[in-house]
Design a protein that fits this description.
By secondary structure, the chain is α/β, with parallel strands linked by helices.
């Protein structure tokens, strides 16, 4: 297999990563180009890793070798880009490699030439930066009191506020009319037999807010049909999984106009 065949499928994703780092596609592409030129000239080689992993590791090596500076985003930059650019550089790399590019912590550690433990700490620091900036009101839709209390504790621990804990579709819809949340955490099967899916759909008709489903019935959402939820956590859940999902849901959400 030629180098082009090997790396070609991964270049669009590397360009996305580079754009997120620098704030503009033009600037990001200049670093991608520098990495490919280094590879073509023989000054750098790909490590014996899976192609995508090796490509990102090469990019990071070139980034460091050229003394790259993270640019200030232009005035026209979107909300997410501005949020990304406010995260300190090393934290940003670890966060974007895992949250945006989908690498595992071990893979990100290989790319960054660091230990998995250090990468885990960098991600935690990035999450802290995000949470401090994006503190918001959270609506919890959950009918099990113990689980609701656990989720509420996690939300408060992250510095957010809980506007309401609703146990039915009717309660959830009524709660939003009283107090608009910045995030919804929803179970699917609710106390009176109503559906958390229906409750969320009702809410999204009038308000564009990020939603995380936390459920013991993921198959009801993962149907293979679009749209599927971007954030889905299966019960029983790990607290750190919920915390990471909250940070990512808030960070990557860009509010869109709701149809009248």
């Amino acid at each position: 297999m030629s180098l082009v065949q090997k790396l070609g499928p991964h270049l669009p994703y590397l360009r996305r990563y580079a754009r997120a780092l620098t704030g503009t596609q033009k600037s990001g592409d200049s670093y991608v180009k520098a990495a490919l030129q280094a590879l073509a000239s023989g000054t750098h080689e790909l490590d014996e890793l899976p192609p995508r992993l090796a490509l990102y590791k090469l990019f990071q090596a070139i980034w460091g070798a050229t003394g790259a500076k993270l640019e200030t985003p232009p005035e026209t930059a979107d909300t997410v880009t501005r949020r990304v650019m406010r995260i300190p550089p090393r934290h940003r790399h670890a966060f974007l490699l895992t949250a945006l590019e989908g690498f595992t912590i071990d893979e990100a550690a290989q790319i960054l030439d660091d230990s998995a433990e250090n990468v885990r700490q960098l991600i935690a620091l990035a999450q802290r930066d995000i949470e401090a900036e994006l503190a918001t009101e959270v609506l919890i839709i959950e009918d099990e009191p113990v689980i609701a209390a656990d989720i509420e504790a996690l939300v408060l621990d992250l510095g957010h506020r809980v506007s309401t804990v609703a146990t039915t579709r009717t309660e959830a819809v009524a709660a939003v009319k009283q107090r608009l949340p910045g995030l919804v955490l929803a179970d699917i099967q609710l106390a009176d037999g109503s559906s958390g899916i229906d409750a969320v759909n009702d809410i999204l008709k009038g308000h564009d807010v990020p939603v995380i489903f936390i459920t013991a019935f993921p198959e009801r959402l993962l149907t293979g049909e679009k749209p599927e939820p971007a954030f889905l956590i299966t019960k029983p859940f790990q607290p750190e999984t919920v915390k990471a999902a909250i940070g990512q849901a808030l960070f990557f959400h860009v509010e869109r106009p709701v149809a009248a």
